[in-house]
């Protein structure tokens, strides 16, 4: 565990880095987001220009090395973003290696934990789904996860 001020210093450093390396290269209509050390941005330019922005960001400091995921379908944290003909669609992202597990009902957790799991999963599906069809697919996945876990 680090010093209490470590997170603040890291955020100051990342703010300076993103202003220099990323935000200056993005147009005002582009989308940019960062959570701790994960970043996401849209960029409607040729791939070579995206690679130049990433190289500039990597050259800013020797400890920063971005791994680019360039494509029309990318994940950011637990969100899947899909570009179909210029329209962004979002849904819940499930890591391929993660199994659909929740806390077993026979565990010693307080009972309210189990209803919170269902509520949180449905709320995430509702917030992240851009269409009713995407929401219905996620709702079915939640139902199967709950059936799978008993």
From TrEMBL:
It comes from the Eukaryota. Residues 102-150 form the Helix-turn-helix domain. InterPro entries: HTH_animal (IPR058912). This is Helix-turn-helix domain-containing protein.
